[in-house]
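> call design_seq(struct)
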């Protein structure tokens, strides 16, 4: 049976990585495959958005380096909200350097990402050493890594043999690499004809999701939850501005209504996929 037909609950049992399992379990428990990307620049806006979308999401995606008044109190409050509303945290850091440097960027500095983010991601461009560098910090903490196999932007270079190589790198490091940021399922991608990939169960988290627009003026491209979940077999929809608009003048009631709307669209699409 294709993995895309299995329920999130069934797939949770197939994962030994603690973060992958926890994510799939929370998706099933809360009936949501919505991840909100909270790209706002102040602590107060960030916490207001998370507080209102919390009940509708499985995951909060952060870019902590854009928050002007970042401090560890913000992380403490985010952690409290993640317990209160039952969601995981994903810092979209997009590491891209040599193993030694990424290990330091992941563990140290102002943000100390590994200490609070269940999931993070990396560009495969440096080759497998980026995985071993990050794994030296993340594996002992039960963290999970996503590789950027594809991007949502117009003209992205992450295609073809680059994407295939990313999937091969993931297959060789399944204890830590739990899936991909990609625009479609990666089952069997890059495998040699005699290689069995049936045991693979990579999570596909997909940005570039919007119901009211097909893109922005800076190369972003949007598809609907149905296109992403049903047609392309992805697992988690990542939505930013579709939920909170441009961030200036946050209207909390609209944010809540949009989070509810995307959650419903994403979950209905998933149900159509597993039943269809
Ligand atoms: P948007 O407001 O829904 O367009 O925000 C999308 C978010 O996902 C934003 O934080 C990006 O940094 C992130 N993203 C993306 O849009 N496309 C990609 O391919 C990757 C990340 Br990887």
């Amino acid at each position: 049976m294709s993995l895309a037909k299995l329920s999130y609950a069934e797939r949770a049992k197939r994962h030994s990585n603690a973060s992958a399992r926890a994510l799939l379990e929370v998706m099933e428990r809360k009936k949501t495959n919505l991840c909100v990307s909270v790209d706002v620049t102040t602590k107060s806006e960030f916490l207001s958005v998370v507080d209102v979308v919390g009940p509708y999401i499985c995951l909060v995606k952060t870019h902590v380096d854009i928050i002007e008044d970042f401090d560890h109190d913000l992380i403490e409050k985010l952690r409290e909200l993640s317990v209160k509303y039952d969601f995981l945290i994903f810092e979209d850091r997009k590491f891209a350097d040599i193993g030694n440097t990424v290990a330091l960027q992941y563990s140290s500095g102002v943000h100390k990402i590994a200490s609070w983010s269940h999931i993070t991601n990396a560009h495969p461009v440096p080759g497998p050493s980026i995985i071993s560098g990050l794994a030296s910090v993340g594996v002992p903490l039960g963290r999970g890594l996503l590789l950027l196999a594809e991007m949502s932007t117009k003209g992205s270079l992450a295609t073809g043999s680059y994407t295939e190589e990313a999937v091969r790198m993931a297959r060789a490091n399944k204890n830590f690499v739990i899936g991909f940021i990609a625009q479609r399922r990666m089952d069997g991608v890059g495998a040699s004809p005699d290689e069995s990939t049936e045991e693979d169960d990579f999570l596909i988290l997909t940005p570039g999701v919007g119901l009211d627009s097909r893109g922005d003026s800076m190369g972003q491209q949007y598809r609907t939850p149905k296109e992403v979940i049903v047609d392309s077999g992805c697992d988690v929809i990542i939505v930013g501005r579709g939920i909170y608009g441009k961030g200036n003048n946050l209207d909390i009631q609209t944010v809540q209504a949009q989070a509810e709307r995307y959650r419903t669209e994403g979950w209905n699409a998933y149900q159509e996929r597993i039943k269809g």
